[in-house]
Amino acid sequence: MRAVFIFFTLAALYGNASAEQATAIRSSSVLTKPALTAPAVAKLAEGSLIEVISHQGGWSKIKTANGKTGYVRLLNLRPIQNANKSDKLSQLGNVIRTGSTGAVATTGVKGITKEDLANAAPNVHEVAKMERYASSADEAITVAKSVKLTAQPVVYMEAK
Question: How many structural domains does the chain have?
Fold first, then answer.
């Protein structure tokens, strides 16, 4: 469980130094800050080509075609893949061999590369803050009983 919290902390604190291209998958407001209540600086139409400057949690800082910069929800964007012919042949080989392209989709981590994860470093202060939200097993049982939850058996798979 702690590994999950650390991963999401890294994702939330992640900042990408290099720009990438993306398209808007739905119309969105471009906001001055990564917050739903922030004022809008521009409107992004569905299908718009934009430059992603960085990521901050569930938000992407972008630059529009007319030079406006601001924040858009990460899930409103689709990164443009720069696949060349050999990548496509490799994917086709994966499909023939395994039935899959080898691509993995994970909600909430768009734009994070393998190198970003390999070079990531935890923010010890933020992890310590998150650990203050952890509850003990006794506290969890007390809360579960107070809202009339019942225990459910969990069948674990055996390791091979």
Answer: 1
